[in-house]
Amino acid sequence: MIVYELACAQGHRFEGWFASSEAFAEQKERDLVRCPVCDVAAVERLPSARVSVPKGGAVVEPAPAVPAQPAASEAISGVPPEVLAKLREIVRNTENVGRRFPEEARKIHYEEVPPRAIRGQASSEEANALREEGIDFASLPSVLTSESH
Ligand SMILES: [Zn+2]
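Above are the sequence and the zinc ion SMILES. Below is the predicted complex in structure-token form.
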């Protein structure tokens, strides 16, 4: 699964989940990618979008310092509730390493420790550094990481 940060022509920002970048391109081509707020198909990927490709490896949550996203981004277009529930379950089954995420992700990447699924927090600088090292992880939308109270 890949999550893209998207914006419509009216400036509504939301997240879209797709099986692959090809699936996104195809759905966009057929006007199937629509804004959940105003339902227009004029939707563009934001340049700042974080592409996530979970492979049973590391998963990252935005650092707490990252400003809260607008409520509109809570809408995940085109994802059935059962898929969301499954994704939440996957997230729950990862080990929460908190702020040690960059360190733990490196250890897993360089095979210093046995591979396992982890989640945690990284600043955008740390996340960029990890990507530059070729470490694969996903940025999760807050709907998946927020604990239910
Ligand atoms: Zn819109």
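The helical segments are 21-29, 81-92, 101-109, 124-132, 142-145.
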